[in-house]
Amino acid sequence: MGVVVELNDGAVRVKNPTLRDVAQLAGVSIATASKALNGRDHVHPETRTRVHEAARLISFTPNALAQGLIAGQTGTVGLITGDLDGRFSIPILMGAEDAFGTGKMSVFLCDARGDAIREQYHLQALLSRRVDGLIVVGSTTNPRPSLGSDLPIPVVYAYAPSLDASDISLVADNEQAGSDAAAHLVKRGRIRIAHITGDAGYLAATDRATGVEIELARSGLTLVGGEARYGSWTEDWGRRATQQLLAEHPDVDAILCGSDQIARGALDILREAGKIVPDEIAVMGFDNWEIFTSGARPALTSVDMNLETLGRAAARRLFAAIDGDHSGGIQKLPCRVVVRETT
Amino acid sequence: MGVVVELNDGAVRVKNPTLRDVAQLAGVSIATASKALNGRDHVHPETRTRVHEAARLISFTPNALAQGLIAGQTGTVGLITGDLDGRFSIPILMGAEDAFGTGKMSVFLCDARGDAIREQYHLQALLSRRVDGLIVVGSTTNPRPSLGSDLPIPVVYAYAPSLDASDISLVADNEQAGSDAAAHLVKRGRIRIAHITGDAGYLAATDRATGVEIELARSGLTLVGGEARYGSWTEDWGRRATQQLLAEHPDVDAILCGSDQIARGALDILREAGKIVPDEIAVMGFDNWEIFTSGARPALTSVDMNLETLGRAAARRLFAAIDGDHSGGIQKLPCRVVVRETT
DNA sequence: CTGAAAGCGCTTACAG
DNA sequence: CTGAAAGCGCTTACAG
C-alpha cells in the first residue's frame, strides 16, 4: 500500500499507489475496485466512475507483475539477436517491436553476439521472467541450431532458420529475390549479365545466384563468364571484380551485384572507365540500404528484402503460436525490386 | 504448482515447476527450499545439496515476477529510443545492453519514433511493468523535453540531453570532437583547412564547427572561406560543396567533413579533380562509421564519438541513480580520432 | 451489485 | 537448523 505524501491543495498524493489505495479512496473493497477498473460486469455505474476517478487522482498504475503472476501470462516476449551490430537485425527488430507494441506486448531485447554461452544465459533470464514467447534473429541467413524443443514457450526463428524443421522459421526468399532481380534486368533488354556477389559461405549469396541462373535460363541466357563471381561483401571487392570483368568481357551490359556495397564499388569503376550507367551498362544491388542507394551516382536500383515486414510477420507468427498454433516449418517471404536510375 | 508429466526413466518430470515442487521432491518446506536455493544461512549443508539437486532434476527456474513483487525491484530497465532506425541509437543501445546484461538486468526496448504520444504510451507500459529505471536515447543531439520530474524511477538521458537541467544527461562532446579533429589536421601540417558539414539545425554540426574554430584560432588559423559550410548530412552535399570549394579556394590543403558520408562525397570529387589524397589535400570525417570509412579510397580518417561507451556509461549512471545518486546535470563524454590514410 | 477469502509463486521475520 | 504464517499486489470464483 502506498504512502500518503501530501494533501496540500486538497488533492490526495500517494507515493506508490496500489489498488488498496484506490479502493480506500473510493470507499469500496479491493475486489470491487479491481472489477470496476477492469470493466467487469456487475458493478454499479456510479461506483465504477468513483473508482476510476480515485485511480486517476492518485495516478494509479496497476502492477503488471502481480497481474502476470495471476494470469500466467506476462504480456512480454524476448527477442534474442545474433548481432545487433549487423544492420540486418535492426529492421527486423523494428518490425517486431512495432507489431508487439500495438499488441500491448513489451519486448525484452538481448544481444547474444553470436555466442552460444551468452545466448543460453539470456534464454535463462527470459525464462525466469516468464516471457510468453521468443523471437530469435540470426546474424546471417545460414541455418542455426535450435534452442531445443522442450522449452515451455513457443519460439520463432527469423532471418536465419532453425536447423530443426519442426521449429517455426521465417526467412527472406533469397532465391526468388535473385530471380526477380534477373527478370528485371532481362525486361530492361539486358542480355550479357554478370553477377558479382559476396562470400560463397553465405547462403544469401548462393541462393541468390541460383535464382539468377534459373531466371536467366528461362530466357535462354547464361551469366557472363559462365558463373557468379564470389568474393566478399565489400566495396573493394566490387571494384576489383568489376575491373576484372571489364577486362575479360568488355561487352557486358549489366552487373547484378550481391549487395549495395558491391554495387557501389562497381559504379565507381564504371565511372572511371568512362562507361555510362545505365545507357551502356546497368547496375543493380541487393539490400536496398538507403544510405548507399541514394548516395550513389546515379541512384542505385536494388532489391529490398523486406526485413521490417519479416520482423512484423515473425511477431504475428509468435502471437499465433502463443495462441496454440504449433505448426512448424520454414516460411519464405517475398522481396521487392526498387527501381532507381541505374537500370 | 507444476503438473507431473512422466516418470518414465525413473526421472521426475514436472511441467511448470515451482518452488513447491522442489520442496516436495527434496522433502522440505517451501521456506527451507527458498533459503537453500538463495544461499541463506542456517541451512544444513546436506539439506542444501538435496534441494539444489531437486531443483536441477526438474529444471526449476525461479519466477522473477514473484520475486520482483516481493523485492519491490524487478531487475529490469526500459530503454526508450527516439528512432531505432537512425544508426546512432544502435551503438548506444549495444553499450547499454552490454552493461545491463552483465549486471543481470534485462532491458525492455521501446521505439517511440520521435512521437511524443507513442513515448507516453511506452512510458506507461514500462511503469506498469515496474522497471527500476529508464534510459531515453534521443534521435539527434539536440536537447529534448524532459519526461518529467515526478516519475517514481530515475531516468538517464543519453545522446540528446534533457531540457531540464536537474535531469541526468550524458552526451558526446561535439565541441571537443571538433577541436580534436582540427588539432589532428594542424599537427599534420595543414594550414588551409575547410569545414563542410551538415544541417545547421543540428547542434552536432554547430558545436563541432565551434570546436574547430576555437582550435584553429589557437594556432592563429581561420577556416578557408572564413566559415563552416552547412548543408545536409549526405554524400551529395559533400560532392557539391567540395566542387564549389575547389573552385573558390584551389589552394585548400584539408577538408574536415561533418560526417563520413560528406567525406565520401568529398573524396569522390577530389579523385575526379585529380587531387592526390592525402599528399595534396587531407580529408577527415566524423562518426567513424566503419562501412564508409573502410570502403573509402583511401581509407578515411574519422572521429569516433564513442557511442557504445556512451551507452555503457548511461547504464552505469542509471545503476548509480537507482542506488540513490540523484545528482543531475549534463555530462560530456570524450570522442577519439581514428587515423587512417586520408590524413 | 458488493465484499471476504483464496490464491498466483515466492521471501522473510518469527517461533520452535 | 526447520517450518508455519504473513504478505508482495492483484484477480476471480463464491456467498451474500
UniProtKB/TrEMBL annotation, chains A, B:
SUPFAM superfamilies: lambda repressor-like DNA-binding domains, Periplasmic binding protein-like I. It comes from the Bacteria. InterPro entries: HTH_LacI (IPR000843), LacI/GalR-like_sensor (IPR046335), Lambda_DNA-bd_dom_sf (IPR010982), Peripla_BP_I (IPR028082). Pfam families: LacI (PF00356), Peripla_BP_3 (PF13377). Keywords: DNA-binding, Transcription, Transcription regulation. Residues 17-71 form the HTH lacI-type domain. The keyword Transcription applies. GO terms for molecular function: DNA binding. PROSITE patterns: HTH_LACI_1, HTH_LACI_2. CDD domains: HTH_LacI, PBP1_sucrose_transcription_regulator. This is LacI family DNA-binding transcriptional regulator. It comes from Leifsonia kafniensis. The lineage of its organism: Bacteria, Bacillati, Actinomycetota, Actinomycetes, Micrococcales.
